[in-house]
Write a structure and sequence with these properties.
By secondary structure, this protein is α/β, with parallel strands linked by helices. The chain has 3 domains: 70 residues, DNA polymerase, domain 1 (Orthogonal Bundle), CATH 1.10.150.110; 98 residues, Arc Repressor Mutant, subunit A (Orthogonal Bundle), CATH 1.10.10; 219 residues, Rossmann fold (3-Layer(aba) Sandwich). Helix content is 48%, strand content 14%. It contains 18 helices and 11 strands. Strands 5-4-6-7-8-9 form a 6-stranded mixed beta sheet, with helices on both faces. Helix 17 links the parallel strand 8 and strand 9. Helix 1 runs antiparallel to helix 2, helix 7 crosses helix 8 and helix 12 packs across helix 13. The longest helix is centred in the middle third of the chain and has 43 residues. Interacts with EME1.
């Protein structure tokens, strides 16, 4: 009896359809773009969550600025044609989900039959500045006898319903969220009155704002619960991963020089003939092996020069916490640890950290550095890669949900440890705690280390432990 296979529906059918169309057109023209669209299509099919814009596709592999802008343009055309609320509803949800108003509601809001029957040609994107202005004006219309609001009142109320700053311009732009008001006035959804000006909803704007408010109130609790659960799961899973990665190996007897190849083979397999070669030519293996005796070495934190380009505050703060720190040019990662003995011989500990602030994470996703840096970290030969993400919610060029999803992918797909901190100060404390932990782990009186060949660009030696 054959097993039944369950085929999951694609969460982004429109994007999938458009990419297939562009790929087929490229095939007809015999253009090399067919490979680009094919790769992007495969990446999209693997992504399990819905995407509300082309901009959010930056988090996926093979999605560059051109494809994302194409998707946004196509989505805008589709939205205008079909009157779709992006990311929150399907075609026709405004007409289907909005319950017909009662007579009392019609009397209270002065809905004309012509206004109710009129087709809505413009629907703002969820949590855009236009969306926020309409919601704020509608709530004011319900709660106050006067439906008018000044600019300052509207700015403060609308900010709660948008991810765009209503007061400050976006990075690289002179426009704030308030610039959307001119579009709403032009589309006759908002009316501007008097001097100093006050703003209120037109009949068409009131109808649209009511439907947006219904969708907003229905999804608000669900969105909050989803965000809280995701943040808690990220924090709990991160702590579990760190705990698992820092567990010491089981105790084994300390090896003698003659036993070295056999003991090494427990962790890094060495062929039997290699052990025989060691007995015949021990000098060859002695060059590639190094032993640090107990209490003969120090654990030192290496900081990349890029982390100190704006000053050496990070080094000063770490030293003030009693951490041994050195600044070096690291070809991969921002922080790593080494052990150094009295002869200035060094072993690299199996931990490396890439530090990202949220705004920098968004930029690296957009320009492609995000995937390139993760690839280099996986190729460096150090098994425990930690992605340190600092909270910084100002001037984000991508939605926060997209950045959280990128961090989740890094932990689950790339098998990195992901650590979130509240800011720069908490990152310093985290580094100091790790340094203290490594001092306790790698410097007990009964510990002995040896090395084997690795591919880390800075060093050709790598530290392993055995305890007796």
């Amino acid at each position: 009896m054959k097993r039944a296979k369950v085929k999951l529906k694609c969460p982004n059918p429109l994007f999938k359809q458009w990419l297939e169309e562009w790929r087929d057109e490229a095939i007809d023209r015999n253009s090399d773009l067919k490979h680009v669209y094919e790769k992007a299509l495969k990446s999209l099919k693997k992504y399990p969550l819905p995407l509300s814009s082309g901009k959010e596709c930056f988090v996926l592999e093979y999605f560059g600025p051109k494809i994302c802008s194409q998707l946004d343009f196509k989505l805008a055309e589709y939205q205008k044609k079909e009157s779709v609320l992006v990311g929150t509803c399907e075609i026709g949800i405004l007409e289907n989900n909005s319950s017909p108003g009662t007579k009392k509601e019609k009397k209270e809001y002065n809905f004309d039959k012509e206004a109710e029957k009129k087709k809505i040609d413009y629907v703002p994107t969820t949590r855009s500045s236009s969306y926020a202005i309409l919601i704020a004006l509608y709530i004011n219309h319900i709660n106050n006898k006067t439906a008018e609001m000044t600019k300052s009142e509207l700015l403060s109320k609308a900010q709660d319903f948008t991810d765009t700053s209503m007061f400050k311009p976006q990075p690289g732009s002179y426009y704030t969220g308030w610039n959307s008001m001119s579009q709403l006035v032009k589309k006759q959804l908002v009316e501007k009155r008097g001097n100093p000006p006050k703003f209120c909803l037109t009949i068409e704007g009131l109808l649209l704002a009511k439907q947006l408010h219904i969708l907003h109130t229905n999804s608000l609790n669900e969105v909050k619960n989803t965000t809280v659960k995701q943040s808690e799961s990220l924090k709990s899973s991160t702590s579990k991963v760190i705990t698992r990665k820092l567990v010491l190996p089981p105790k084994i007897d300390c090896p003698t020089p003659k036993e070295m190849p056999e003991v090494l083979s427990l962790t890094h397999p060495i062929a039997t003939n290699e052990a025989e070669k060691y007995r015949q030519e021990p000098s060859k293996y002695q060059k590639d092996s190094l032993i640090f005796l107990p209490k003969t070495f120090k654990v030192i934190l290496l900081v990349d020069t890029q982390e100190t380009c704006k000053g050496d505050e990070i080094v000063k703060e770490l030293k003030s916490l009693g951490i041994l720190v050195e600044i070096r040019k690291l070809s991969v990662g921002d922080f790593t640890w080494i052990c150094r003995n009295s002869s200035n011989q060094e072993l690299v500990l199996p931990y490396i950290i890439e530090r990202k602030r949220l705004d920098d994470l968004a930029k690296s996703i957009k320009d492609g550095r995000f995937h390139e840096q993760k690839f280099r970290l996986k190729q460096c030969g150090i098994p425990n890669c930690i992605y340190l993400v600092e909270n910084y919610k100002e001037h984000l060029s991508l939605p926060l949900q997209t950045l959280l999803q990128a961090a989740t992918n890094t932990q689950i797909i790339d098998n990195f440890t992901v650590k979130f901190t509240a800011g720069y100060k908490e990152s310093i404390i985290y580094l100091s705690h790790l340094s203290s932990l490594f001092n306790n782990i790698f410097s007990p009186p009964t510990s002995i280390g040896w090395c084997c060949q690795m591919t880390f660009p800075l060093y050709t030696i790598f530290l392993l432990l055995a305890t007796a």
